[in-house]
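A further point concerns the way the authors explain their paired sequence and structure data. For illustration, here is how one protein appears when written out as sequence plus structure tokens:
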Amino acid sequence: MRHQVRKNNLNMERSRKKLMLNNMVTSLILNDKIKTTRARAKALQPLVEKIINDAKKPNKVLAIRKVNASLQSEIASKKLMSELVQRYQGRPSGYTRITKIGHRAGDAAPMVQIELIA
């Protein structure tokens, strides 16, 4: 039974949510940090962890294919495969940090900064 097992759908349909999260992953990899709402950051964090773990796999051809399927930019995939894989080689997980930065002025949504740990 799947009682009380819920996913955060971010109030949008699946295809739109997937596209938004893939764009956010690409932006995070390119810029090393982004500002977003807490709910979006919590949905984004496991995706970033999974993509970085896929990039660290020993089979580089398969790793490049998986990374390119998720990221929207060739520049982001090259940065991930060259810089970030080297940066996180000794770290098994925990590549991101979420920091609270207050509330948005327009609608008082809780805002956070999600960043890649150096």
